[in-house]
Amino acid sequence: MPYRAAIGSTSFRFDSLRELLAKATPRRSGDELAGIAAASEAERAAAQIALADVPLQAFLDEPLVEDDVTDLIHRTHSDQSFAGIRSQTVGEFRENVLAKDIGVIRSGVTPEMAAAVSKLMRNGELILAAQRLPVVSRFRTTVGLPGRFSTRLQPNHPTDDPRGVLASTLTGLYFGCGDAVIGINPAGDSVESTITLLKLLDDVRSRLEIPTQSCVLSHVTTQLRAMEAGAPVDLIFQSIGGTEATNKGFGITLSMLSEAKEASQGLNRGTVGNQTMYFETGQGSALSANAHHGIDQQTVECRAYGVARAFDPFLVNTVVGFIGPEYLYDGKQILRAGLEDHFCGKLLGLPMGVDVCYTNHAEADPDDMDSLLMLLALSGVNYVMAVPGSDDVMLGYQSTSYHDALMVRRLSKRRPAPEFEAWLQRQGLLDELGEPTGIDNLRLAIGEWASALPRG
Length: 456
Known about the structure:
46% of the residues lie in helices and 11% in strands. By secondary structure, the chain is of the alpha/beta class. The chain has a domain at 137-440: Alpha-Beta Barrel (TIM Barrel), CATH 3.20.20.70. The strands form four sheets. The chain has an eight-stranded parallel β-sheet with strand order 7-6-5-12-11-10-9-8. Helix 10 links the parallel strand 5 (150-153) and strand 6 (181-184). The longest helix is centred in the middle third of the chain and has 17 residues, at 191-207. It is globular. The chain starts with a strand and ends with a helix. Adenosylcob(III)alamin binds at residues 186, 238, 288, 394. Its EC number is 4.3.1.7. It catalyses: ethanolamine = acetaldehyde + NH4(+).
């Protein structure tokens, strides 16, 4: 079905919903690389005008691609929740999103609807709407409560040296980091190294009685094999995409994710909940795998959230600038994408975090990341990354640091997850105002902790 709009005396035609969504997307290098972006700002404005008049029902009637992700989205869609917005257009839905709490109809919103409405919103509107859509998840900590701000402590090491991982972990704990998860991207993907790192993190957690969860971000099949070998697995991680072909490139199927969820929940290792899945996504992953089917990268990203939603995850985060400037060219595009991803994830009911990051060949710098970080805190983001010195020496990209997380908590008056905050206070590392208690306590605590941990 063609869609039309005019700017002045110039008329524009868009031959499909897929083309309309791509042309309505705020400018980004990935869509230009794919050859699907608007050719001018006038065409982009015309596409947005036409998109505002599209009925939400059209996204159910006109699938963007036929694959197992589309099947999953339609199979898990709640027609009962959708009934309250069925008669609305994208533009009318935008007004509702901005005017009131629409959390009750989340299961009636498809990823494509979420992507469409976000394309009509300015940055401030994405922040305002996301702030009204808290999502809480539970395992050993409760993440996403209003007034809380959590972090993934990311003690990566280029050779998986346990001493380096341990040093980064203990330092991060002092800064109050790690209440979302202590998660390592391993340098290798072997079952043996995964088990070694899982045992190290679990030993730290259990000996110090830390109410948090750990994860080694190997491939899902590697983690399942580690679990079968008796490794202490809390969360199961996997990168996912918004098309069947993208997930095939990741070496996964939806049935693998179902198996992983069932196996991990069967361990019953959580204390305040049993949500065990951890997913990572990122705009541009489908294009980089030549698996986007002509769909713009932000809409494909939202479809990945449709996959995540079906598995009731504990954590989801977009690695917003990780894939590179070919997909998000500069700080402005990264900032916009981060706000879009967070809003769309929350609209779809996901416990959404963001890796505020960039690669060194992007036209971005730490000031751009500070801006995005603070805007996300204002939006109510569930968690961000906490990397030693903000420089991940294993993955080779720039993210947010332990100090950045502390800065956000001070400026936004947000505190760690309640169970983790109570532990920090018991350890004497956090005062009643939520402030770290000083470098002397850091030295003392690390000395005591290290002496309690195994050598070698």
